[in-house]
Amino acid sequence: MQTSNIFETLCANYSHHPNYTMSKITKPKSALKGSKSDKKQVKMAAEAAEKIVAEKPVEETPADLSKTIVSTSSSTSSVDPAFRIVTGSYEHNLFCVSLLLGTSPVFSPIFHFTPHIQSIKCLATSGRYLVSGSADENIRIYDLQKRKELGTLTHHSGTITALEFYKRKWLLTAGEDGKIFVLRTKDWEVLAELKGHARAAVGKAKVGVVDISVHPTGRLALSVGQDRKLILWNLMTAKKASVMACYPDVLKVAWNLAGDRYAVTYTTSISFFSPETGKLIGAIRSPKDGLYHSEYVSIDGKEYFAFSNSRGVIRFVDTNEFEGKTNDTKNEFKTEDEDIDTISFKVQPHATRVKDFSFLIPDNVPEADRHVYMTSVSTDSKLVITDMNTRETVGAYNTGDRLNCCVMVQEDVEMEIKKALPIPESDHDMSASESEVEMPQPSKKQQKKAAKAARKNKKVKVTIEKDN
């Protein structure tokens, strides 16, 4: 199968044009009837009343006052940020909660169920779709707009270790079977299989793929495995572009937001590389604290590399400080030294190891008031929300499960489907190839089906003639 068109440049402009309707003000018809002289007297009385109104302002009626209050509040009041958080746990549970940030955080559980028979290892979301990977070798697909499961992917024969979407149209999956698959989200068909990592033999230590990261252009991808390989993939040809060596305790790999450098995270260290030269441009050592999750994020227009450790600390490093250094300079920092504080800051949302964290900018608030929010999860059963612009904790929720992974989605993920389909569809609809924006008009097939059912249920009128 040709894969030259696997990752095309997708440029879609979404514009929402709200419709405003104005009710017409009509004058009530006069109920006065009589002679011309009566009408003349009524006209003179009306003119006298208008003069009085012109001299003295008319006080607003309660109805008019209510209209004024509504129009003022809609134009000047601020909107509280709102978003949703989905977590996966060691107890096989998938949990979603909605958070409204006002004077005090308000958590509203959305769903909580057990889709897997073993612990959930990873989550990924893009638009309306949510996928979960587990140690039971299955990947579950969910439609967040309809709150229903679309199906299960069973193409892996090992624990699912990494899931990553690209541009809402493609999904990359990796597992301990040493395989990486590229799927199309329209019909969830496997378009390519990337082979390059080793699979664990029976009775030996686990290997396989540990993590994957897609380049911002969608043409390249990085993968790391416990087989001591770091592979650069050409996704246009589905073949290896280069292979580098890495340590077996590798945990994460990530491209930065511009795609001009990448980071490899190990259990006690992080290495930063330039893809153009392949040389090491910086390193961070953490000999006393084990590392867990790491990724790049932009805060206030500045790029940081965030990583968590076993003490519940999440540190944000400005990787631009690594640039411009000569090869003679030892560009290495330790988390225990004070030197790293000159290029980073940290927050501590938990007291124990932070297994995962995710970032989101809520789009339900004006652009000038938007902040970056971070959700972090730990095995202490708590998910903690931090405002990264103020670096303060704004909310915490105890799920009762040992959390392993998390993702964040916009609060209005269900709003489009609710507006388009006021009448819910059948729960047995498992279609996975629906468009991103649902149309309110029924299809021709549905119209024919409804007409057929109407004809079938139509009652036949029977008349009985009486004998004279």
From TrEMBL:
Superkingdom in the source lineage: Eukaryota
Biased composition (Basic and acidic residues): 421-431
Keywords recorded for this protein, A-Z: WD repeat
Spans of repeat WD: 113-152, 209-243
Keyword flag GTP-binding: no
Keyword Transport annotated: no
Pfam families, sorted: WD40
Region (Disordered): 421-468
InterPro entries the record matches: PAK1-Kinase_Regulator, WD40/YVTN_repeat-like_dom_sf, WD40_repeat_dom_sf, WD40_rpt
Basic residues: compositionally biased ranges: 445-461
Protein name in the entry: Uncharacterized protein
Organism of derivation: Yarrowia lipolytica
